[in-house]
Design goal:
By secondary structure, this protein is an alpha+beta fold. The protein has 3 domains: about 120 residues, Trigger factor ribosome-binding domain (Alpha-Beta Plaits, 2-Layer Sandwich); about 200 residues, Trigger factor, domain 2; about 110 residues, Chitinase A, domain 3, CATH 3.10.50. The protein has 14 helices and 12 strands. The strands form 3 sheets. Strands 6, 7, 8, 9, 10 and 11 form a 6-stranded antiparallel β-sheet that branches. Strands 1-2-4-3 form a 4-stranded antiparallel β-sheet, sandwiched between helices. Strands 5-12 form a two-stranded parallel sheet.
Length: about 450
Amino acid sequence: MNVSLTNVDSVNAILQITVTNADYQEKLDNALKTFRKKANVPGFRPGTVPAGMVKKLHGKSILAEEINKIVGESLYGYIQENKLNVLGEPLPNEEKQQPLDFSVEGDFEFFFDLALAPEIKLDLSEKDKVTYYNIAIDDALVDKQIESYKANYGKYEKVEEGAKETDLIRGTITELENGEKKEGGIFVEAGILMPSYMKDEAEQAKFVGAKADDVIVFNPGKAYNGNETEIASMLHIDKGAVEAIAPEFSFAITEITRYKEADLDQELFDKIFGEGNVTSEADFRAKVEETISGQFAPDSDYKFFLDAKEYLENKIGDLQFPDAFLKRWLIASGEERTAESVEQEYPKIVKDLKFHLIKEQIAKDYDLKVENEDIKIIAKQAAKAQFAQYGMMNLPEEMVDNYANDMLKNKENARNLLDRAMENKIIDALKANLGVEEKTISLDEFRKFFEKEDTKEGEVEA
């Protein structure tokens, strides 16, 4: 078998594969023997069909299958052995490839078009200047985060005074008929409501100012504006039964509880940062500032990555791409793509491809590899970030591990985490090898960068 590569230009090549009888004869004979053992031909038991008949009936398709296996192995083996950085997948050459006749054993020639990635040389050094923006953590940000902690870690406490709109009111709910308890009617022993959820102001006002032991007569349908889900939940009935309820219910109040924010004390310090790790308000503020800074670090990295992307794209300038091949491959590989849609999408595809090649080159230049442990770290960071959104800090490591493992079971999640892990390594490599100029700015100034990006996208879409 002979495999040879002919370069058409710097980004296009033709790979020729010649398969001779000697390359496939043994495999063909073995395949025919295997097929003969299982062949189901009327008048013959399995395994007794004459070899000549098997070859006559199925030899052509079996030969084609064996030749295709050999060609596929040779094609991708050559690419791998010669470390060719190809774009897309090889395509049959439309000019040189002749029709193949597998009814006759002999030599077979295959011609494939290959798209070669353009060569990129970055040669990064401190002369390549990119700004890294640190976000200043001011007292207002720290105060806002502390207030959030106090709100998230507060609790409901029993009050004796009149109820407010946002208090939880507990008691028994009884369906009425002519002002009296309805025979066989709805009765909820552990009823609960919050006046602020009521849509009707008049019904809501009946509960505001009420105290324990008061009995309020109200109309659930009117109070919740006929919302079957809310009414059914309060009365512990099916949504389908809501329409038949009486217009009047009594609510005998047994308890009123009010949400009280957590105090800024040792109990809160321990809940947020672990027992004994913070012992004073000053240390707590410093730790909160450190936490916020850590939360903003990915945003700063992302902005740096975008700026580095723009800088590197400009540095390498225009690249020659095998445009005709890529458009042809895009149409062939996408069921819903047409020549018109590819032509329209092609500029963006090439722009994305250009940066993909830049990232590949960075990974190659600095020998960046993603290990399983790197992906696990990213998964745990993502898990902690999701819990933090709900004020859940300082979680047991086992709980975070389990959540991260569940994320990795999803193939799409795992692939996204792999990409993020590599992107983080690329960012670290860029920070270490570019002439990074750090600058500290306010959060409002930082956000304006992305307001500009949103405006640009809107202009393009318009």
